[in-house]
Design a protein that fits this description.
Layout lengths: L6 E2 L7 E2 L13 H4 L17 H4 L8 E2 L12 E7 L9 E6 L10 E8 L3 E17 L6 H6 L6 E14 L11 E4 L3 H6 L8 E6 L5 E5 L11 E4 L7 H14 L10 E7 L17 H9 L10 E5 L19 E3 L2 E2 H6 L18 H14 L1 E3 L4 E4 L2 E3 L2 H13 L4 H5 L5 H12 L2 H4 L3 E2 L21 E5 L5 H22 L4 E7 L1 H4 L7 H16 L1 E7 L7 H5 L3 E4 L4 H4 L9 H7 L6 E6 L2 E8 L23 H5 L35
Parallel strand pairs: 12-23, 12-24, 13-21, 13-22, 14-15, 14-21, 16-20, 22-23
Antiparallel strand pairs: 1-2, 3-4, 4-5, 4-9, 5-8, 6-7, 6-9, 7-8, 10-11, 17-18, 18-19, 24-25, 25-26
């Protein structure tokens, strides 16, 4: 998970979060409250008014305008900020606002203006500020700024905001008239400008720049009108994983899903340490301020109430203990038995490299897969198989058996295919043998699944709302195998169960599993989910550093596109064409916790900030004092997870004073 640094937001937000500082009206905060920089004043957050000695005119107090007759009542006070500018072209899709001397607009503010049209009545054009320009009117040279500052040269400071239209109501696309009053939309007018009033069910996505909540339309998340989410940004800075988890938290706790929340599940593949193994534990930073931030969004400030955790088994261990160190309680080891491997035809997922499907040896892969499915028989209760009289208990033995069958002249035609040459067979053998080390701990026939205490080795999403699969201890090839096999199994299960439940699948580093070029079994599964997953109830939440390296059809099928901090070169790619030019530039400067959210109903992406996680993101953040990760000797004997002795494989000599007496009186350091 990305490293997150929290900063304190002003009282309008009321919670620690990531992102920029906003200065609300009221007493200026102290230096400690801001965290960095000198104390701010009330005027620091606004565009200062123009001094009469400089501009040649006095400043008039800002007035509150009442809605004209016939307009729907606004949920908040309308604030006039200026008038539609006449020096710039005004179109139905973009217009400019000249700001009053003592008013200001910042990026992402929502602006509305009105025009009377014969036959239509009043047409309200609303939009989002995408650029603000300030300049001296009356200056001809760069050095004139000093003369103007000294009051020698008369000039006027003028700010002009560019507004991208988001909604025209009713739909009479006429340009706003120069000189028309422009207001900062609030309340019901703001909701109308951003289509929030048209959302039957909406999901809080964070807080906007104006301090008010920003929502996503659930219909573009649950498959009703669209599905899938694409999150892009620099690793460690863009907080992609954190925002994806916040989005899941919002989905499950906002009440938008209604009765469907009972059958809504989340499957999360974790590839960045053990940070996601604590999402069911409250964060030590959870205080009244953070609770207020979640309350602002209508969400409870709590961890995920129902979560299950899976990790691969410890390499070299025959008791099926999970390979984890930070959390050793409540984690289940997962693997596939050799019998399951053969019956479910999982061999193609061993060859998951993107270039593999272009090679002829894939013919051998499918031929061997079919042969294993037909001839393998279960042997015992530990997952071993018997083929042609040979009993196979480990992945290494299976590799040796297959290699012998495809290279022996007597059996090669039967196992590899009648018209396959030795060159193709050798290519298959080389790649198969290279999988022995990464996949050895995952494909087993030496772990008993029938004991006094039943052992569950399959990843099951039905027993809890959130299922976390920890992959960080696995090599990249093994990670691809797990993701491909689990997603294929979940797709088959959803096809058999039919529509009704929702499965939100979160995958980090999506470009590794579904790259733009090449083909592989895993990429085929992800494409299948992207193209018809909404009909099955499978929703993909993909996170990647570079959307330009992900399969185009997956990105294009994502209804919700989210961007955090971007590399400047990546920001210029056509995959980010949905961002206005100003937002592309801002994405290269965005602080952790600031995301740009694009959804189909709103033409302009909206900048949001989301609060600090209410759940622990690492072991040090676990607030529960009774939560422990230690393993006692009794747990060790019962098969619980524990860290092995790092010196157990070192050779001993009789001269070692501690060989016969391991208790040397020293105090062991944890976790040993």
């Amino acid at each position: 998970m990305e490293s997150l640094q929290s900063v304190e937001l002003p009282s309008s937000f009321g919670a620690p979060a990531y992102g920029v500082h906003r200065q609300p009206p009221g007493p200026p905060p102290t230096h400690d409250e801001i965290g960095t920089g000198p104390p701010m004043t009330d005027t620091d957050s606004k565009t200062p008014g123009v001094d009469s000695t400089t501009s040649g005119r006095g400043s008039a107090p800002l007035t509150r305008q009442q809605p004209p007759g016939g307009l729907p009542p606004s949920g908040g006070a309308e604030q006039e900020v200026g008038k539609v500018a006449g020096t710039e072209d005004s179109t139905p899709l973009k217009f400019h606002v000249a700001l009053s001397p003592d008013a200001y607009l910042q990026l992402d503010d929502v602006v509305s203006t009105r025009r009377q049209i014969p036959g239509y009545g009043e047409v309200v054009t609303s939009g989002v500020v995408t650029e603000v320009v300030a300049r001296h009117e009356g200056a001809a040279f760069g050095s004139d700024v000093f003369l103007i500052a000294d009051g020698i040269l008369p000039a006027t400071v003028q700010e002009i905001a560019e507004v991208a239209t988001t909604r025209v109501e009713p739909e009479c696309y006429v340009p706003p008239r120069p000189g028309a009053v422009a207001i900062r939309a609030a309340g019901a007018d703001r909701d109308a400008a951003l289509y929030f009033d048209k959302m039957d069910a909406r999901i809080p996505a964070g807080i906007g720049r104006d301090g008010e909540p920003i929502y996503l339309n659930l219909e573009f998340l649950d498959g009703t009108r669209g599905a899938h989410v694409s999150i892009s940004g620099i690793s460690g800075v863009a907080t992609k994983t954190s925002f994806a988890l916040f989005l899941l938290h919002s989905l499950f706790t906002s009440g938008a899903l209604g009765a469907r929340a009972v059958n809504a599940k989340a499957l999360i593949f974790s590839v960045k340490g053990e940070d996601l193994l604590f999402v069911d534990q409250p964060n030590t930073r959870l205080d009244d301020t953070l609770r207020a931030a979640y309350a602002r969004l209508g969400l409870p400030a709590r961890p995920f109430a129902s979560a299950g955790f899976y990790a691969p088994p410890l390499p070299g261990d025959t008791t099926g203990r999970p390979h984890v160190t930070g959390r050793t309680s409540g984690v289940t080891a997962f693997w596939w038995t050799l019998a399951e491997f053969c019956q479910r035809e999982l061999l193609p997922y061993v060859f998951a490299d993107v270039e593999d499907e272009k090679n002829q040896y894939t013919i051998v892969v499918h031929q061997v897969t079919s042969r294993l499915h037909r001839e393998a028989q279960a042997a015992g209760n530990d997952g071993a198989v018997a083929i042609d009289g040979a009993t196979i208990r480990t992945w290494a033995e299976m590799i040796a058996f297959i290699c012998e069958k495809v290279t022996d002249e007597a059996t090669r035609a039967h196992w590899a295919g009648p018209a396959v040459g030795m060159g193709t067979v050798n290519a298959f053998v080389r790649r198969l043998r290279s999988s022995q080390r990464p996949l050895g701990p995952l494909i087993r026939g030496d772990l008993s699944t029938v004991t006094d205490r039943p052992v569950t080795h399959s990843i099951d999403t039905s027993g809890q709302q959130v299922t976390v699969v920890d992959l960080h201890n696995l090599p990249e090839r093994a990670q691809r195998f797990v993701v491909g096999v689990v997603l294929a199994a979940e797709t088959d299960r959803k096809e058999q169960a039919g529509p009704g439940g929702l499965l939100f699948t979160m995958i980090d580093e999506l470009n590794k599993y579904a790259p733009r070029e090449g083909s592989s079994p895993i990429k085929d599964v992800l494409l299948d989910i992207a193209e018809r997953g909404r009909s099955l109830g499978i929703i993909l939440i993909g996170a990647q550093q570079t959307a330009s390296e992900v399969e185009r059809r997956i990105v294009s099928n994502s209804s919700i596109k989210i961007v955090g901090r971007l590399d400047p070169a990546e920001a210029g790619r056509p995959e980010y064409g949905f961002l206005p030019a100003s937002q592309r530039q801002r994405a290269t400067l965005a602080k952790p916790g600031t995301m740009f959210v694009s959804q189909p109903e709103i033409p302009v992406p909206l900048a949001v900030e989301f609060p600090f996680p209410a759940w622990a993101t690492r072991l040090s953040e676990v607030a529960d004092p009774t939560f422990t990760t230690g393993t006692s000797a009794a747990d060790w004997n019962a098969g619980g997870a524990a860290r092995p002795d790092p010196f157990s494989k070192l050779p001993h000599t009789l001269s070692d004073s501690w060989f016969d007496d391991p208790d040397d009186g020293a105090i062991d350091e944890p976790p040993f």
